[in-house]
Amino acid sequence: MLFLDFFFNWQIGLSGLVFSIAGFWFANKIGNELDLQTVGQVAEKMTRENYLKSRRNPKTFNKNEIEKVLTDWFSNDLDLDKSKLTREAKFV
Fold first, then answer.
1. pLDDT higher for 61 or 18?
2. pTM of the full predicted structure?
3. How far apart are CA 85 and CA 56, in angstroms?
4. Dist. CA 85–CA 76, nearest whole Å
């Protein structure tokens, strides 16, 4: 459609082209890129970073889930080994 505008009215076609290029430039500047490959990885990251917001009822939580979320959170953010993160583990 943009190229057809060049043939009928070059001012509209040129302004559309400039607007498109500006839009791509703007998207490139403010856009973020995810380093995740699967939807499951996106869901795990969302749960890890925003657990209560990802719940159907934000006033509740599952004790089994929260333990896994905290283990993943400490492991990823503090670069700790998951096998050493148990309920009895202490910060020393």
1. 18
2. 0.47
3. 28
4. 12
